[in-house]
Amino acid sequence: MSTQSQNRLSASSLALLAVAFVFAVIVSNQLLKGLRFDLTENRLYTLSAGTERMLRNIDEPINLYFYFSDQATEGIPSLRDYADRVREMLEEFEDTNRNKLRLSVIDPLPFSEDEDRAARFGLQGVQLGLAPDSIYMGLAGTNSVGDEEIIAFFQPDKEAFLEYDIAKLVSTLANPERAAVGLVSGVPMTGRFDPQTQRMEPSWMVYQQAQQLFEIRDLGSSFDKVPEDLGLLWIVQPKNLSNATQYAIDQFVMRGGKVLIFVDPVAAVDAMPTEGMPQGMPPLGQGSDLPALFAGWGIEFTSQQVVADAQLALPVNTGLGGRPTRHYGYLGVPSANMNDSDIVTAELSTINLAMAGGLKLAEESAANLEPLLMSSMSSSLIPASRFSFLPNPASLQDGFVPGHEPFVMAARISGTLPSAFPDGFPEPPSAGDNDETEHLAESTEPANLIVVTDVDMLSDSLWVRVQRFFGQQVASAFASNGAFVANAIESLAGSADLIGVRSRGSFARPFTKVDELRVAAEARFRETEQRLQSELAETERRLGELQSSREDTGGLLPTDEQQAEIDRFIDQRASIRKDLRAVQRGLDQDIENLGRTLKIINIGLVPLLLTLTTLFVLWRRRRKESL
Questions:
Q1: For residue 32, pLDDT beyond 60
Q2: CA angle (307, 262, 360) in 5-degree steps
Q3: Which H helix or E strand runs over 470?
Q4: What is the DSSP letter of 393?
Q5: Given 22, 154, 409, 426, which is the most exposed site by the fewest CB atoms within 10 A?
Q6: Which residues, 6+ apart, have CB-to-CB distance to 104 below 8 Å?
């Protein structure tokens, strides 16, 4: 074959390859449209299963209007990148159910009708940098009955909540009627008048959050029937409930009603002043229980004991000077001690508890218990009475012996439950009471309860900081207590699709190894401290015996034997204090050594191994080429 023929063949082959490449690109764009791989650890760029179920169950058309000032943000690349992220998420929503969900992307130019409509929706125009016009980046949604929901402005620092915010908007439009929840509370969650300050105390943030999501009805603490349109009871710190009220709750559960219960062996938030209390001591927290209902349903709650945990203990300021002391009753429960397979706790971060109790099923119970929150293996039960007068939380460490088994502090109870009142109504009906509702001896369908053994976790101090900013309350959560409560109510109320989406907003990686080092060092420190106190008491006793045995009891100067004993103790005390300082330094030193080792591995060893591997691969390739 001539050179000219070869050139023609080569040119033809290149042309065919070019055509084939273009054809392959066109075909792949059509066939593989929307195909992507999410390699992030928590699949942050993939719609959760709950979102997909919610979108597929939409019955009526929903219109979404994404207003983004495209032209006005040409000089703000960071904001444009986030706008692309928002638009791609909205397109994922639309692709999941194109029949019912319609997306429109609108650039609201200044002085245009689109800008006027964005303003009427309530979207927020923001002045950024040197841009002369306000910038819009918000979402408005409407349904077939005229309801409207908006996200005023997509803040880039809330990217972790992006999917949840959009899913919540769509879910609200798809189901405009909020679930009704009956509140039975023995503490002032809804706010109260403080006679000392002569002011109204605000409602708890967890209650305010629940109000935004559900219709909360305060039932008080005395009633003989649960309204028929309620599907969920939220019971908090129940105290001295009458038999009629307990019977109403029991029969509500027997008929398929859901219940979220918060009890507590020592509720610090429910303070009760006690006469004769030492000056400066905090008031005694009251306990709460549902003994009749729990016993009838086969639930055992340790109302007289508190779960103490050396590993999960939180540091608290005692006001005694020095550094904070770890309080074995105040626990920070990490995600590792939560049930990651339950929609209530899946992927939540830390939940803070205070003096929680233990929970389990009775041996004869036929129900199922699914733990939600658990203590660590370094935990044990301490009598609740030890928390009554506790000037120094470090005293909880005295004689503490871990039980080497976790305790359940919150759980989901399910299954067929027997009535706690097998003989029917516990009190004779009042005159004129014609209520002929049939008594149920067991639940007509599998029950679904969530029981939490701590009430303090609902208080603002354990999970959220609330500040006033230009007359508005600004809440900043530092724990997942609020998300846990909202998840639990949503789960029991039946709208569980958004649970997994909410959970993706929190991320925490507790340093479990550091916690173990700290617990071990504290145990050594406490043991040495107790030995010092024991030596001190023994020496003082010995000095007292020497003093009483002296013949010249009126002498002011110590005898040679007393002086020798004092000198020996001073030397021994100095040695033990040196040991104490060494233990304290050892705690920090162990943690620093761990950090130094990780730095060496990440900064030095890993790059070195990658370099050696690359050089070895290049050497092998060149060796093959030379052969």
A1: no
A2: 50
A3: none
A4: G
A5: 22
A6: 63, 64, 65, 66
